[in-house]
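Posting this for the archive.
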Amino acid sequence: MANSFKNAAISATTSYQTLYTAPSLSEVVVLSLLVTNKTSNVMGVTFRFNDSSAAASFQMLQNVQIPPNTSLELMQGQKYILEAGDSYSVLAEADTSIDIVMGVMEKT
């Protein structure tokens, strides 16, 4: 299996948007999840894990409050595994207030 390091990025909105979906025939290790509040107000962000094999979604982080003009590493020291078709979705308290960058290693 070949390993490939990649980033996924999104400017979150008030509707769930897909941040990243694991490609077909792959396993993915999520290495980091950096969240940046670009405003001068505290903003909340929610993350959802979508399990394709179970056809179910699960909240991973619920309305985490990010201080103004701050970046936080939300998965510090933790690793999560995605199977082919699994994905992460994100929701912000206000449109374009939150940027998210996720680092992954895809094993194909």
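The chain has a mean pLDDT of 95. The CA atoms of residues 71 and 102 lie 13 Å apart.
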